[in-house]
Amino acid sequence: FYGECFRAKDIICCYVDLVEGCLFFAKNGEIYGDAFKGNLALTDPNKIFYAGCCCLTKGESFELLVPEGED
């Protein structure tokens, strides 16, 4: 089991670390450990990463935040 159950009005975040090659989630600002880490296509410069998201009920929404790159 990973994380906790969520309910209406919870804010669920999905993070993808392209440097470390891991994916993890947070609920209402509480970050859970890595959901997946390892041989991700994300770290292969020859592959394209396609993100996906869906809303299951009326009134839900999502926002894509892309951080600025680090030098």
Question: Order of strands across the widest beta sheet?
Answer: 1-2-3
Radius of gyration: 14 Å
**Total beta strand runs:** 3
Distance between the termini: 37 Å
Brief descriptors of the model:
71 residues, 3-stranded antiparallel beta sheet, 28% strand
In words, what does this structure look like?
The chain has 71 residues and is mostly beta strands. The protein is built from no helices and three strands. The protein has strands at residues 12-17, 22-27, 30-37. Strands 1-2-3 form a three-stranded antiparallel beta sheet, with no helix packed on it. The N and C termini lie far apart (37 Å). The model has no long low-confidence stretch (mean pLDDT 79).
Concise overview:
The chain is mainly beta and 71 residues long. It contains no helices and three strands. It has strands at 12-17, 22-27, 30-37.
Question: Which helices and strands, and how do they pair?
Answer:
Layout: E1 12-17, E2 22-27, E3 30-37
Antiparallel strand pairs: 1-2, 2-3
